[in-house]
Model the fold of this input.
Amino acid sequence: MRQTFRMMSLLMMMLFVTALMACGEGESGKNASDGGDDSSETDQQKLGDKDVTLATDTYVSNIGATYVVKHLLEDVGYNVTVKETDVGIEFSGMATGSSDASVGLWLPGTHASYWEEYKDKLNKMSMVTEEVELALTVPSYMEDINSIEDLTNNKNNIGEKLEWDITGISPGAGMMEITKEKVIPAYDLGDDWTLQPSSGPAMAAELKSAIDKKEPIVVTLWTPHWTFNEFDLKMLEDPKNKYGKPDNVYAVSRNGFKDDSPLAYKIIDQFSWSKKQNQDVMYSIQSGMSNDDAAKKFLENNPDMIDKWMDGVEKKK
Done:
């Protein structure tokens, strides 16, 4: 009898242990299949640090791209700040960690000096736009001025007509450095011509004013730029190739950004578009739309591009 009782007790204990194990496995299975908590944690790990600062210079060609990327990142849950500043501060800011990334690194020419100075603290990412060009540029109605050498030779007294001024942009811009240090000496323009610094918007305003009056003007210009949508322009030939081959535009980030905000890094690394697409956004901004609205308009009109840039990325619910 006592033996039977002991066997029954042992059997009940075994059943109790088995039940506990089953409950544990059930609870574990529930946790593993609970898409809410676990997927949320996974998404958080993908997002990493949700606060992202995008750096850009004040040139509308880079501002348009920056705001398109801003909206892509916001759509997956990031809090994005855009920091518009001088190009030198743009790169030093990423090097020191006050900004996270930019989609406006022009290489091998325009931003070469900044890249050489800060490249050990920066990470060059994928190409954003292929073959962007720098050139001294004139309205197409200046039919006899087709080369920088025409300025050297003062063809048709172009120097006197322009009071020997070339209208530039901000002094810290890579194009201004190349024009001053390479182009002007190579074409012997330094004795007569003066490169007048201003800003991107001021240069464009001077260009528009001259075209409205059909007056001559020479400006520092590049592609992509909204003025090519608005006006009939021609880039002057550069037979000595001092502006060099066309640059490519790259995304760039501070070291460590990929680890800190991996999904943001992935999206930026997948972002690329054509010069025409950039100019379309630039033209919307120039026509009076805000940076945000111009970017939203482009995204609404180009869902196929969104699919490309967001490949493998889920939007926030």
User: Anything to note?
Assistant: The two ends are 65 Å apart (CA to CA).
